[in-house]
């Protein structure tokens, strides 16, 4: 039988709309999501193919599917159809969900049929190529003697692409004296 939830977790299970759950490791997110998924099936009458559950890793998605299966098996008999359908339910990573939508609706998603998700190595190579292409079309006056060195610009942009949330925060900051600071930095690299 599933473990007891905290009152806060139970409130999320009972919440009538969509929910996003964020918490640290070991706080019960997987159990909470499994309970919420089961509630949509048992209480709300949804089929497994009508409920979407997204995690960040394939391992977490596999554990979630397994936990949902165990919770359903422990609760009620007569759920054979739901348990069978659970294997095809959209439980996975954000990437796998997006891929599924693109595969099922390529015209609306504006992607080529048969497209695929790049693995980490392929994605890094693609980003590096796109970044170099973008920088090569940038006005040369921004680099070298009168601007930031090309290699520094490339590394800064790679860092921003690697952490877009921090990059967004950094780019929103315009401290007093920014122009003076940039001028000093520029002289260091010329």
Question: How does this model look, in words?
Answer:
The chain is mainly alpha-helical and 190 residues long. The chain has helices at 7-14, 29-42, 58-75, 80-86, 94-104, 106-109, 120-136, 150-162, 164-172, 178-188, and strands spanning 53-55, 91-93. It has two domains: 7-109, Rossmann fold (3-Layer(aba) Sandwich); 120-188. 59% of the residues lie in helices and 3% in strands. It is elongated, with a radius of gyration of 24 Å. The model has no long low-confidence stretch (mean pLDDT 83).
- In DSSP terms (H or I, runs of 4 or more residues), the helix count works out at 10
Could you tell me the CATH topology label of the largest domain. Rossmann fold
DSSP, total strands: 2
Q: Quick check: average pLDDT?
A: 83
Number of domains as seen in the coordinates: 2
Uncertain regions: pLDDT < 50 for 5+ in a row?
none
C-alpha-based Rg, rounded: 24 Å
Report the β-strand fraction as a percent range: under 5%
Strand order of the largest sheet: 1-2
* Rough outline: elongated
Q: Note the gap between the termini.
A: 67 Å
The helix content, as a percent range, equals: 55-70%
Kindly name the structural category.
mainly alpha
> Could you name the CATH homologous superfamily of the largest domain?
P-loop containing nucleotide triphosphate hydrolases
Order of helices and strands: HHEHHEHHHHHH
Largest sheet: 2 strands, parallel
Name the CATH class of the largest domain: Alpha Beta
CATH architecture of the largest domain: 3-Layer(aba) Sandwich
């Amino acid at each position: 039988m599933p473990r007891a939830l905290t009152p806060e977790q139970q409130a999320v299970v009972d919440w009538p709309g969509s929910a996003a759950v964020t918490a640290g490791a070991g706080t019960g997110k997987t159990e909470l999501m499994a309970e919420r998924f089961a509630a949509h099936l048992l209480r709300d009458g949804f089929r497994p193919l009508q409920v979407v559950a997204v995690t960040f890793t394939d391992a977490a998605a596999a554990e979630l599917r397994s936990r949902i299966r165990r919770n359903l098996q422990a609760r009620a008999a007569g759920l054979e159809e739901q348990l069978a359908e659970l294997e095809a339910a959209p439980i996975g990573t954000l990437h796998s969900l997006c891929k599924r939508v693109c595969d099922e609706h390529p015209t609306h998603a504006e992607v080529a049929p048969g497209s695929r998700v790049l693995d980490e190595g392929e994605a890094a190579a693609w980003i590096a190529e796109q970044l170099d292409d973008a920088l090569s079309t940038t006005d040369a006056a921004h680099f070298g003697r009168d601007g930031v060195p090309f290699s520094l610009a490339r590394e800064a942009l790679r860092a921003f692409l690697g952490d877009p949330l921090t990059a967004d925060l950094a780019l929103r900051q315009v401290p007093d004296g920014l122009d003076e600071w940039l001028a000093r930095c520029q002289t260091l690299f010329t």
